[in-house]
Specification:
Blueprint (H helix, E strand, L loop, with lengths): L3 E13 L2 E12 L3 E5 L6 H9 L6 E6 L3 E4 L11 H6 L3 H4 L7 H13 L15 H15 L3 E5 L7 H16 L4 E5 L3 H7 L2 E7 L2 E6 H4 L2 H8 L3 E8 L2 E10 L14 E2 L1
Parallel strand pairs: 3-7, 3-8, 5-6, 6-7
Antiparallel strand pairs: 1-2, 1-4, 8-9, 10-11, 11-12
Helix pairs in contact: 4-5, 5-6
Length: about 270
């Protein structure tokens, strides 16, 4: 039987007594798997991450994490003009100690980590000068330096263009498959979840949720109930491969007629 890396049972949270943000959620994530958490704003995705990180305590229920955790927030800002190398070395903080300096071997390991993501040439550059996609890859390198077992990502593709979204999703999959990292990520993109996640948690609100195998949970019916708009699963071929994705059904402007939206069409 596969060992669980993250699990919670009967997990509930209320910021005010009796006003449940979510209630009696249960899930188990196997080591090396990816769990995608989806839901509209206000359903408790960020609160769930805070519970997993230990920043909040459950109102009821219990949770367990087997191993050390690294967290990548949605928007990563730094207060000082750190270099890319310094940012990666910060991943070693727990091992280096509070008043110690990184060793030569630490710096060499940081360069190796950066090189894996194609970022070694940026080691001396200021972190704040990088693009959003480049910053995300640097943070992944820092995560490897931390030697964490569980990686928690808050909307990792937020504010990235399509090319960088693809690059980041590819690396998320690699960190799971090649490095055995257990990954929990939040996202507003069901098609991203279908592309990389093993399991999915849909936060419907209150005690309503759906959790399980991504292909089974990400149905048109479940997603329409979650977001209040219809979505379609689309199957097509690309480079000789059969690929399935999800697309929202949105109004299309009829530019040759009145300019008003026509019936929904898949975009």
């Amino acid at each position: 039987m596969t060992e669980s890396a993250v699990s919670f049972s009967g997990l509930s949270y209320a910021y005010h007594p009796g006003k449940w943000l979510f209630r009696n959620y249960s899930a188990s994530v196997a080591k090396g798997n990816i769990l995608a958490v989806l839901g509209p704003n206000g359903r408790g995705k960020t609160t769930l991450l805070k519970l997993l990180l230990g920043a909040l305590k459950p109102t009821t229920g219990c949770l367990s994490i087997n191993g050390s955790v690294a967290f990548v927030p949605q928007l990563f800002h730094v207060s000082f003009d750190y270099s890319v190398l310094d940012m990666v070395l910060m991943g070693r903080a727990r091992k280096i100690g509070l008043f110690s300096q990184p060793t030569r071997s630490d710096e060499e390991a940081a360069i190796v980590a950066l090189d894996r993501f194609g970022m070694a040439e940026f080691a001396g550059r200021p972190f704040h000068e990088l693009s959003g996609g480049e910053r995300q890859l640097v943070i992944f390198a820092r995560t490897l330096m931390s030697e964490a077992d569980v990686l928690i990502l808050d909307e990792p593709t937020s504010a990235l263009d399509l090319k960088n979204q693809s690059i980041v999703l590819d690396w998320i999959a690699r960190l799971s498959r090649a490095d055995g990292l257990t990954i929990i990520l939040t996202t507003h993109h069901p098609h991203h979840a279908l592309a990389v996640a093993d399991e999915v948690l849909l936060m419907m609100g209150g005690s309503q949720y759906s959790c399980g195998n991504a292909a089974h949970v990400l149905t048109e019916v479940n997603l329409a109930a979650l977001y209040g708009v219809p979505l379609r699963r689309v199957l097509f071929e690309h480079d000789g491969r059969r690929i399935e994705t999800l697309a929202p059904v949105l109004p299309m402007i009829d530019r040759e007629d009145t300019g008003r939206p026509t019936a929904g069409q898949i975009l």
